[in-house]
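Worked example 4.2. Below are the chains of a multi-component assembly; read each line carefully before continuing.
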Amino acid sequence: MSIWEYANPVKFMQTSGRLLPWVVGATVLTLVPGLVWGFFFTPVAAEFGATVKVIYVHVPAATFAINIWVMMLVASLIWLIRRHHVSALAARAAAPIGMVMTLIALVTGALWGQPMWGTWWEWDPRLTSFLILFLFYLGYMALWEAIDTPDTAADLTGVLCLVGSVFAVLSRYAAIFWNQGLHQGATLSLDKEEHIADVYWQPLVLSIVGFGFLFVTLLLLRTRTEIRARRIKALEQRERMA
Amino acid sequence: MMPEFGKYAVTILASWGVTLVLLAGLIAATLIRGARVKRALKAQEERMKNDG
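Applying the procedure described above to all two chains together yields the following structure tokens:
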């Protein structure tokens, strides 16, 4: 069986319908314990005080702000190269989720920055690239809404997604590329020296996994809605032509 | 039960509050639009079936 079978809307609806209850269950079983553990049962950190609690919402949101754009890039490339409608609709469905994740990362970062850095905002490389990524999400969503022809909208938003990928990569690696600015390096690292202590790391990983399942749940739901909306358009067109 | 946040209470509660509100809004918007589009598709299919 080929993976491209899932590009068939009927097959996608069947498979996603079967998967959804499991993914919803996995979301509840990881996100709720991860957030409760992080909020209620982690100690105050020596360096950051109680503000360490913010990482359980900030880091997962920032991680998915970038990774959702990467997912949209892959889906857009599949559309541009192989013309599978479900992939274009999945990219469209993912954008509002990525936009919300980026907004959460920006707002919680500003709230954390005020007591820690003494400022809500700094034109730091990582912060700035995140702001541009947020604007790209808004632009991407606006472009889909602005164009009536679905295939043309998918083509143009696909190209916009390729361009925006530069900022998704910059958002991830800006702190390393420029080695300057307020934002510290990665919170999670394979390097033991940089890595946060296990007592913070374990609930953080659970929260990230929970955000991941939440993203998959919302993506499946929203893609199913986009497929139905596309079918309505096709039926209306058929009705007009009859 | 509530942990002690000291002088950072506003920072922490505001961060979590904003996050939970935005996520709840996203989930609600997803479910509401999903239900609306599903209803509209069903109505469209019924109409076309009745019209032959």
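Take a moment to check your reading of the output against the notes. The CA atoms of residues 44 and 50 of chain B lie 10 Å apart. Chain B touches chain A through 34 residues (CB under 8 Å).
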